[in-house]
Design a protein that fits this description.
By secondary structure, this protein is mainly alpha-helical. The protein has 12 helices and no strands.
Length: 309
């Protein structure tokens, strides 16, 4: 128990420091598939440093909301990381019902991003905001229902209690329900982070972008906050999936922290592989995988109810 504060601090700091590395690993994986060398893994850190040295440019149509949104979104991401990073590693971390606060923090960050995009008065950013809200209308139910399934199986409403209660014995009896939730979390990860097949983060065509089009007017340090917040969001959703996949291993403490970091890198390789072998879905078909994720979590809840009954 004396190592708990150190473990919690290490898990949070590792997330803050390594979050920009995740999109770099994805980009390097895609480069390997394309037969290219690719950018160095340190490129996201260089880009952030370059943006921090630049100045701000604000449209005359924007208000204080547009200027405050990047920092507030980043604050929401950092608060969510402080809740999820030590979960399952540091005993006694968190509180009952913190999974609801986690979902609300992510929802607040999305609301601020959409509101800032609408504040510019740009029709392109308005289209991106409407698509973001469309995807979130399906992604959030899948996330909340998945967390509810895990809470029902583990008997705890805190993230730390959920991971602690999902041991190898639970996987033997209710593994099908947990596996369905894990698949659903992976689909939500791709949608919430605007990855293929939902969006192409490398495109520069405003008519097809979702997340990128919402931040076209952001510049300088604010853009650095947006880019860092996006990588932090990817790390958050990846942590949910990786920690869930590691629950039957029985690891704990520093071993679990090391395994989680390694799992995040493997997850980044998996995302890069998915983006290399699949194409972006048409806009009208993009919500279908999210609808499937919701159906998977509902089915998982039914299986969990039978397991507990």
């Amino acid at each position: 128990m004396t190592a708990t504060p150190a473990l919690a601090a290490a898990s949070i700091l590792s997330g803050l420091l390594l979050a920009p590395l995740t999109p770099a690993v994805i980009a390097r994986t895609k480069a390997v598939f394309a037969g290219r060398r690719g950018a160095p893994l340190s490129q996201p850190y260089r880009d952030l440093a370059k943006l921090l040295r630049k100045g701000w440019v604000f449209s005359r149509t924007t208000t204080g909301l547009f200027r405050a949104a990047p920092v507030l979104v980043l604050a929401c991401g950092a608060a969510a990381l402080a809740m999820t990073a030590p979960a399952g590693i540091a005993p006694g971390w968190g509180f009952a019902g913190d999974m609801i606060l986690f979902a609300y923090l992510l929802g607040t960050a999305r609301f601020l991003t959409v509101a800032a995009a609408l504040d510019t008065g740009s029709s392109f950013e308005g289209m991106g905001a409407s698509r973001e809200v469309l995807y979130s209308a399906l992604a959030e139910p899948a996330l909340i229902t998945g967390l509810a399934v895990l809470a029902r199986i583990s008997g705890s409403s805190s993230l730390a209690g959920i991971y602690a209660g999902l041991g190898a014995d639970v996987w033997m009896s209710a593994g099908a329900a947990v596996l369905l939730v894990l698949v659903s979390f992976l689909i939500v990860l791709l949608a919430e982070n605007s990855r293929i097949p939902f969006d192409d983060p490398n495109t520069h065509l405003e008519l097809t972008m979702v997340h990128e089009v919402m931040v076209l007017d952001v510049s300088g340090p604010d853009l650095a906050a947006v880019e860092y917040g996006a990588s932090l969001r990817l790390w958050l959703f990846g942590t949910l999936a990786v920690r869930l996949a590691l629950t039957p291993s029985g690891l704990g403490g520093w071993e679990l922290l090391a395994a989680s970091i390694g799992g995040m890198l493997l997850l980044a390789v998996l995302v890069g592989t998915i983006e290399s072998v699949t194409a972006r879905l048409p806009l009208l078909r993009a919500p279908l995988p999210l609808a499937a994720a919701v159906a998977l979590t509902v089915l998982a809840y039914v299986l969990a109810a039978r397991f507990l009954g």
